[in-house]
Design brief:
Largest sheet: 7 strands, mixed
Number of domains: 1
Shape: globular
Oligomer: single chain
CATH superfamily: Spore Coat Polysaccharide Biosynthesis Protein SpsA, Chain A
CATH topology: Spore Coat Polysaccharide Biosynthesis Protein SpsA, Chain A
CATH architecture: Alpha-Beta Complex
Strand content: 5-15%
Helix content: 40-55%
Distance between the termini: 44 Å
Order of helices and strands: HEHEHEHEHEEHEHHEEHH
Strand order of the largest sheet: 3-2-1-4-7-5-8
Number of helices: 10
CATH class: Alpha Beta
Radius of gyration: 18 Å
Structural class: alpha/beta
C-alpha cells in the first residue's frame, strides 16, 4: 500500500434498515432499487415484524440480512434494525419506499463532508398521488410535518422513510427512544431524543426526495390514527422537557 493510500481516510460502511410487515410486493421493488444504487451499500437489514406473507423470503432472495422482531409496531422494528446494523452510517427507508439511484450516495456525501452533522433527511414524493389535488396534499403534508414537528422538537425532524444517521449517534440515544408502544411515531421520537442530547444536529435537504406510498393518509381512519400517534409522541417527549424549555436550550446552545 502506498503512503497516499495509507493516509486516505477509511470510507464509512453503510447499512440500510427496512422494517416490513406483510408487504412482500412493495419490499421486492424497494430492494431491487437498493441493489442498483450508485454507491453500493455494505448490507441491507430487513426487519420482519411478524409478517404472515413471504416478506422474509423476498428479503433473503435479494441478499438482505433478515432480523426478526416479533414485538409489533414500527418503534420495535426500527430499533431492532438499528441495533443490528453493522455500518458506520445507518440509512432508513420503508418497504414501500422507492429510492432514487443516487439516494445512498447523496446521504453519505452530506455525512462525510460535514462531521458535525449526525443525520440527514428529506421530504417524500407520494408516487400514488397524482394530479393537482394529490400534489397539494403532498406539499401540505410535507410542510406540516417539517415545520410543526420541528417546532415541537426544537430541531429538524427526521422523516422515517428517508434518512441517514451516524451509528454513533444512534448508540448515544438508543436507551432513550420508545421501543414498545406502536402508537408512537418512531421517527419523531428519535428526533426528539437526538435534539435533547444537544450533540446530534440533523439537516434537511429539500431535494433529497423519496418516492413513497401515500396509503397511510388516504382514508379518514388512517389520518385519525396518524393524529393519535402524533399526540402520543408529543406527550411522551414533552413530559421529559416542555417545548418552551427545548427552545430555550437550543437558542442557548447557539448563543454559546
Amino acid at each position: 500500500m502506498s503512503g497516499a493510500q495509507a493516509d486516505r481516510p477509511r470510507r464509512p460502511t453503510v447499512s440500510v434498515v427496512v422494517p416490513v410487515r406483510d408487504d412482500a410486493a412493495h419490499l421486492r421493488a424497494c430492494l431491487a432499487l437498493l441493489g442498483v444504487q450508485s454507491r453500493r451499500v455494505d448490507e441491507v437489514v430487513v426487519v420482519d415484524n411478524g409478517s404472515r406473507d413471504h416478506s422474509a423470503d423476498v428479503a433473503r432472495a435479494a441478499g438482505a440480512r433478515v432480523v426478526v422482531q416479533p414485538v409489533p409496531g414500527i418503534p420495535a422494528a426500527a430499533s431492532a434494525g438499528y441495533d443490528a446494523a453493522r455500518g458506520d452510517l445507518i440509512l432508513r427507508c420503508d418497504a414501500d419506499s422507492r429510492p432514487a439511484p443516487d439516494w445512498v450516495e447523496r446521504i453519505c456525501a452530506v455525512l462525510e463532508s460535514a462531521p458535525e452533522v449526525a443525520g440527514v433527511t428529506g421530504p417524500p414524493r407520494f408516487v400514488d398521488r397524482v394530479g393537482v389535488q394529490g400534489r397539494v396534499r403532498e406539499v401540505l403534508h410535507t410542510l406540516g410535518y417539517r415545520w410543526c414537528a420541528g417546532a415541537a422538537a426544537a430541531s429538524v425532524p427526521l422523516w422515517g422513510s428517508n434518512f441517514g444517521l451516524r451509528a454513533a449517534a444512534w448508540r448515544d440515544v438508543r436507551e432513550q427512544v420508545e421501543r414498545v408502544d406502536p402508537l408512537v411515531h418512531d421517527d419523531l421520537d428519535l428526533s426528539f431524543c437526538l435534539a435533547l442530547s444537544g450533540r446530534h444536529p440533523v439537516v434537511h435537504v429539500p431535494t433529497l426526495r423519496m418516492g413513497a406510498s401515500g396509503r397511510g393518509f388516504t382514508s379518514a381512519a388512517a389520518r385519525r390514527r396518524q393524529l393519535r400517534m402524533a399526540v402520543a409522541t408529543l406527550r411522551r417527549n414533552w413530559a421529559v422537557l416542555s417545548p418552551g424549555q427545548r427552545w430555550v436550550r437550543r437558542l442557548g446552545r447557539r448563543a454559546g
